[in-house]
Predict the 3D structure of the following.
Amino acid sequence: MSNSENNYPLIKQYVQDLSEELAYIPQVEREQHIIEIEGHLQSLAQEKIKQGYNKEKAVIEALNEFLPVNKLAEQIINEVEMVSTIKGGTGRYSSNRSKTNVKAITSLVFGILSIVFMIISLLGITFAIIGLVFGFIGLKEIKRFKQEGRKVALAGVICSSIGVLLPILLAIIAYIAFMNPTSY
């Protein structure tokens, strides 16, 4: 990432994590920020070594003086968006990060379809299972990639669960009703 060799594994990991967080900004700008931050961290670590810290402690102290990766990435993205807006761009580099998860939406659609089609039980249950799978995968992706759509995914999981449980419950009620006819 930088021209000089990074001999500090913790700094290298910090820079890699930051680069991943900045994946949605233009590559040239991302690389410029990464090189600048890596250089600052290495210089700070070297200063700490000169002050008498061992290499590992110097790196840890240098990293402690920086923001956590997600906070620093947020600041950089905001800065890049502001500059882009001033230059006449859209200023929406983080829009991919906050976009509602597609699997969450798919889960909700299949969850609703499962309830609508529960009369045709095999089709309704099939939709419900598909909705549950998409809902759980969507929830994992939302957490991992910090996307929006958690409530949508939860609604999909709930509707899909109803789509699975309601036909089963109705089948049990129908079975009980037909097996125990009441005499009037």
